Structures are given as C-alpha cells and as structure tokens.
C-alpha cells in the first residue's frame, strides 16, 4: 500500500513539475 501511495505522490509531483516547466517555457513566447 505504501508503494502505491508513493507512486501516486511521485506521479503528481512529476506532473506538476512538467506543467510548471511548460508554463515557464511558454511565457517568453520563444515557441
């Protein structure tokens, strides 16, 4: 059960980090 909870938490953190990176790259309008 702990492994499942840790996996879900890691997935949420990874998703939020990728989302933040995408927003940071999208702000300057380099794309």
From TrEMBL:
* InterPro entries in alphabetical order: Cyt_c_oxase-like_su1_sf
- The yes or no answer to whether the keyword Ribosomal protein is present is no
Annotated signal sequence range? none
User: For this UniProt entry, which segments traverse the membrane?
Assistant: 6-25
List UniProt keywords, sorted A-Z: Membrane, Mitochondrion, Transmembrane, Transmembrane helix
Q: Which parts form a coiled-coil structure per UniProt?
A: none
Q: Does the keyword Membrane apply?
A: yes
Q: Which domain of life is it from?
A: Eukaryota
Q: What is this protein called?
A: Cytochrome oxidase subunit 1
| Species of origin | Dolichogenidea sp. jft07
């Amino acid at each position: 059960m702990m492994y499942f909870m840790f996996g879900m938490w890691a997935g949420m953190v990874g998703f939020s980090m990728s989302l933040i990176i995408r927003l940071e790259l999208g702000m300057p309008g380099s794309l």
